[in-house]
Amino acid sequence: MKSLKLRDQIAQLVVIPFSGQALNLKSKLDRDFINLVKKTHVGGLILVNVSQGHLVQRADPATVAGIVNRIQKYARVPLIVSGDLERGASMRFNDTTIFPHAMAFAAAHDPAAARYEGEITAREARAIGLQWVFYPVADVNNNPDNPIINIRSFGENPADVSEYVKAFIQGANQDPRHRLLTTAKHFPGHGDTSVDSHLNLATITGDKKRLSEVELVPFRAAIAAGVDSVMTAHIAVPALDSAETPATLSRAIITDLLRDELNFHGLVVTDALEMGGIAKGFGGGEAAVKALEAGADVLLMPTDPVEAIDAVYGAVKSGRITRERILQSVSRLLAAKARVGLGAQKLVNVKAIPKLVNTPEANARAQQIAERAVTLVKNERQLVPLRDAAKACFVVLKEGNASVQGQAFTQELQARVPAAKFMTLDSHMEDAELSSYEQQLQPCEALVVSAFASVAAYRGNVALGGGFPALVDRLIATRKPLVFVALGNPYLLRNFPGVSAYLTTFSTVPPSEIAAVRALIGVTAITGKLPITIPGLAQYGDGIQVPLAER
């Protein structure tokens, strides 16, 4: 640290994004990226995926490892490389173990599974070249209208969320050979909101007592479990600070509450500073200065990294921020880099990746977790398991025409029930086209509608898209037995209370698609329980149990 000049010290606190796509030196974008490392001396990277609608282009592990090795060679101080990895490495990478979303673990009521996910995530991330994961989600999702947390949370019960948060952290720290920095997010709690902070500033309206008894409980558990970092939320908390001040920029929330009251001494990282909850109210440079003034250590994805560094440099030179304050954050970051061994080894062995990621054992365990999470909430006429799946018609409602959603579902269905009749529709279809498919369902004795509803940044809701809601209502109106399978958002029953049976997987990943088919046709038992309440329709802890012996 002493060898770094002031501007370089400030630059260490900045983390910039990269896509994981092969670098092209003919591209100005890639040249600028390299220069931020080589000349500006930023301190870290975050892997982000390139998205086209609902189609996410996940990165290749070996390609990313090669890019990271190349970029590390440009860095004067070893870079810390991060990623969200909220459902294991598969959130950002192809050919890695595919775990379901957080809420599925709570539905499966098995903290040991979350501990195992932490262990495998650490092994796979470190093999590829990542040392820091922005997970677990410590938000308590007690607002059914939350458009951005939803199944990313372990549920609505603070004690349960705490248990799973703690388990993941323990798993990630289990093997010292694959030490992974963990992050509890989004402080002081993003669960009780109905606004996506990617779009606008959200607000938590609870008083201090409510915050202490609900939102803060999982964060206390994370700190007690040794979490390495805490990510701030772009939300206002009027009980703690001004209604116009995001937690990310609030000294009362970061320093007074997190540091002093909760006694957290690790890294505080902002959520992405490019998000609407910050960017719409504050300039890039001013947001960076205010975040550091509030007590944050790491500036994640500022809209303009150089502008952010210049603004902080100017604030130090003017006396607005002290040099000691900068040194505090730099020392925390360098200590974190040392804990994961970056001082001794900053490059990864690309040839070793196939032995460490995507193992059959890990994938089998992930599939088992997905199967245990499947929850039967409603089951009129004992429709589930299906008595004769070959006589039912299966309708898959996927998000967007480019999405691969539903492929695992239909492949598993065809393998198990070759005579099954199915169709896959996408949310971009016009009403006339949907109606033509609807006509084909008239001869069916029973219907199974499997609907994907993903949590996605900048969308603002987790509802079915296009003409799907009207289509489902029309199918319900036929009075045919209808099983609705929610792949993702478990609250969809509120929109379609008239369905005969309701099954939910709490995740949109392929293992959850497979798990849904197996539960529907009686290959696996149904043992999941709701980790949330569906207002007016189902209570926390509900779940119709269907042992294999009864099938």
Question: What is the element layout, followed by pairings?
Answer:
Elements: H1 6-12, E1 14-18, H2 28-38, E2 44-47, E3 50-52, E4 55-57, H3 61-74, E5 80-83, H4 102-107, H5 111-128, E6 132-133, H6 158-172, E7 183-187, E8 202-203, H7 208-213, H8 217-224, E9 229-232, E10 235-236, H9 251-261, E11 267-269, H10 276-279, H11 284-294, E12 299-300, H12 305-317, H13 323-339, H14 353-356, H15 360-373, E13 375-379, E14 392-398, H16 407-416, E15 421-426, H17 431-439, E16 446-453, H18 468-477, E17 482-488, E18 501-504, H19 510-520
Helix pairs in contact: 1-12, 1-13, 5-6, 6-8, 11-12, 15-19, 16-19
For the structure shown, list the relevant keywords.
Rossmann fold, 19 helices, 6-stranded mixed β-sheet, globular, TIM Barrel, 551 residues, 2 domains, alpha/beta, single chain
For the terminal residues, how far apart are their CA atoms?
Answer: 65 Å
Structural class: alpha/beta
* CATH class call of the largest domain: Alpha Beta
Q: What is the CATH topology of the largest domain?
A: TIM Barrel
CATH architecture of the largest domain: Alpha-Beta Barrel
How many whole angstroms does the radius of gyration measure?
A: 24 Å
pLDDT < 50 runs, ≥5 residues: none
Q: What is the arithmetic mean of pLDDT? A: 94
Q: How many strands?
A: 18
The count of helical stretches stands at: 19
Gross morphology is globular
The CATH superfamily of the largest domain appears as Glycoside hydrolase, family 3, N-terminal domain
* Widest sheet, order of strands: 13-18-17-16-14-15
Largest sheet: 6 strands, mixed
Binned strand content: 5-15%
By oligomeric state, this entry counts as single chain
Number of domains: 2
Helix content: 25-40%
